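re: ur question from earlier - yeah i can do the single chain one, its not a big deal. heres the input i used so u can compare w yours
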Amino acid sequence: MQFGSPQSPPGQTPGISLLIRTFNSAGTLPQVLARLALQPGDELIVVDSGSADDTLAIAAPYHARILMAPPPFNYSKSLNLGFRAAQNSWVLVLSSHCVPWSENLVDCFRQAIPQFSPAVAVAYGDCSLVESPPAAAPTVLFADKTASAAQSRLVYGGNSLALYRHACWEAQPFDETLPTAEDVAWRLRVLAGGALVARVPQARVLYRNQAPLRQMFRKGWHEYRLAAELTGAPAMTFFQLVVDLGSLLKKWGTAKMPAATLIRQSAHALGVYLSPKFTRQNKRPESPE
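and the output i got, formated as tokens:
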């Protein structure tokens, strides 16, 4: 299934700048870096927000270019810092708690680039909670501002795994006034300008956030607030909460998801559910970290 009008630009695919934001990421960063296979012309950029663990020592052997983000923490500021340093025309944003599950994750995106028209501003991969095989078929999906809600859900993703056209970021840097949901705000702006958004289903990572439960709860809380402000997203109902928690229990019960992920994602879902019930509708939240 495709939306939009992809074309194959001539010439070789460019190198990719891999951008990873870190903060006390020693629990997952070794697995992330060990499963990456960069090619000549690629580069690795790590933007750290003041880690007190072994994060920087773990990154050093991989010849990463390490940048220090000044406090206070802000997703958009960290991203903009990394994008300014990137030297390639494509920048792959990968969370430090997202472990590559596809073989040759970076090459999955590299091989998809020839299918992109010049209108493609960003391409998302698949961020999964379960250890299931990624899509086998090299099918790339596309959506624009006219896409239906169902089509959009198939294509849209977030900055856990997203390949950006550097020139599009230069025209539209991330909004540093937003504490989170910077990816949603950016996508809305470029779609309004006529851009296409792509999805590369065969590029998959496992979401293994190891943040404290309080932080996961606040993450869900703030993400809902910004989603409601930016897109008018409705509040989660109690029935939807029960369904989500039941789905998480099922994934854990089939041994495809660790118990720690079950607990943290449950805290995140509770944050999403409770946020509209206790937060004033028009009050923008402070930074979640």
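The mean pLDDT is 87. not sure if urs matches, ping me
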